[in-house]
Amino acid sequence: MTPLDQLPEIRTELYIDGESHGAGDSLQVIDPADGTSVVGYAAAADAKQATSAVAAAHRAFPAWSARTPEERAAALVAALAPLEAERAATAEILTRENGKIRLESHIDSVVFEHRFQLAAGLAGEVGQLTVLPAPPYRTEISHVPLGVVTIIVPFNWPLAILAASLPQALIAGNTVVVKPPPTTPLATVRTVELVARALPPGVLNVVTGTDAQIGAALIQDDRVRKVCFTGSPAGGKRIMSMAADSLTRVALELGGNDPAIVLDDADLGPDAMHRLFAGTFDSTGQICMAIKRLYVHRSRYDEVVEGLSGLLAATRLGHGLDERVTMGPLHSRRQLAYVQELLGQARSSGAEVREFGAPAEGADLSRGNFLRPSLVLDPADDTRVVTEEQFGPTLPILPFDDEDDAVARANDTWSGLCSSVWTDDPGRAAALAARLRTGYTFVNAHGAGSLDERAPFGGFNHSGMGREMGIEGIREFMDTHSVGFPS
């Protein structure tokens, strides 16, 4: 691995109306693996520049929306051409600013392009009419684009998450302003700008900056017709409150406290255990749809604990660019302190906390946001590590004896993003999945790697509103229009 102090600093600008623009200030991006190395600087827009991005998107809307969905899709697919040559650089930058291992950063970039291709494949459905025959009227029902859309992206999987809404908004006929995360803006800006340069000016813009400086301009401008936000429930409430002043629509993909239920007949062989492990601990547990609570039938409890313990023991912590490392740091110091607080409360309540893993050879964990992964065994249901979203490398494992009790406990939460059922009986899996109050239920798997990206995705309860991906994800960015003809 190249020494961190020898890696180049990355600088990105704003991209508005088909041109790059500097700013009077910048966001400094620090590597979370050591807390001191400067990865680079992103231009920090002021409110006037954010407003100019909205204005550019507004000007570009009539011509872009006048194209057919197929024409828009073809333009987007062609715009992806430069991404492959930049893949390695994108992954390296994303790992440096985010902390996750290089393989995950590479996947993040690949998924960005894959989701564009999937959305483009739905272009033929965008303009479909529904006709209600006469009498008394012949009525045609169609869908039309909204206008300017703001998309606000989180730090953890910024490219993949952006591509769950960006291509859908564009293929629907909208124009877009993207706001990357302020702590991990660099790879996202570079990627979005590559795509935007191949599109008409103003169709796709990217603006970096602080929420205090540019948030109101990107959310409350009357020309913004929808805001798409991915982040925490608290962040979603702020966005929704701000959008209320201008009656701007919102789509919110928020946090999850995902339950997984392992039944007594589950296959717990090596492959299944790896899926269980990955569904929990990928990206150092910083995934909204990761397993956050694991309910295991008492007859299989020891087997699950032993299996996960063996995999966790092999974890090697360090900088994500080191190919020997399997788990990077948490992204922020604040999140590290929060997860440590949850574990401290679990210990004080009487639960057993087992920690695993070791630093990779030569890795110094003292300066970065590192936390050894852990299992919290048989905590009470009201323990904070059970009731709150950890968003870190820890997992409470809770035994159950009765299936109805497991379902009730799984549903007793503020969230409703994802869930999973682990059983060898497909009928039993379907029956139990139907009772779980989440937007997506996996069977014998869990997490983004097992997601069918053709299907709509989104949460119940405080996990959000609206859906991403699939034709439903495109319709999120359209209005319904009915035209009635007298018979």
From TrEMBL:
<dbReference type="InterPro" id="IPR029510">
    <property type="entry name" value="Ald_DH_CS_GLU"/>
</dbReference>
<dbReference type="InterPro" id="IPR015590">
    <property type="entry name" value="Aldehyde_DH_dom"/>
</dbReference>
<keyword id="KW-0560">Oxidoreductase</keyword>
<dbReference type="InterPro" id="IPR016161">
    <property type="entry name" value="Ald_DH/histidinol_DH"/>
</dbReference>
<feature type="domain" description="Aldehyde dehydrogenase">
    <location>
        <begin position="25"/>
        <end position="483"/>
    </location>
</feature>
<comment type="similarity">
    <text>Belongs to the aldehyde dehydrogenase family.</text>
</comment>
<dbReference type="InterPro" id="IPR016162">
    <property type="entry name" value="Ald_DH_N"/>
</dbReference>
<dbReference type="Pfam" id="PF00171">
    <property type="entry name" value="Aldedh"/>
</dbReference>
<dbReference type="InterPro" id="IPR016160">
    <property type="entry name" value="Ald_DH_CS_CYS"/>
</dbReference>
<feature type="active site">
    <location>
        <position position="253"/>
    </location>
</feature>
<dbReference type="GO" id="GO:0016620">
    <property type="term" value="F:oxidoreductase activity, acting on the aldehyde or oxo group of donors, NAD or NADP as acceptor"/>
</dbReference>
<protein>
    <submittedName>
        <fullName>Aldehyde dehydrogenase family protein</fullName>
    </submittedName>
</protein>
<dbReference type="InterPro" id="IPR016163">
    <property type="entry name" value="Ald_DH_C"/>
</dbReference>
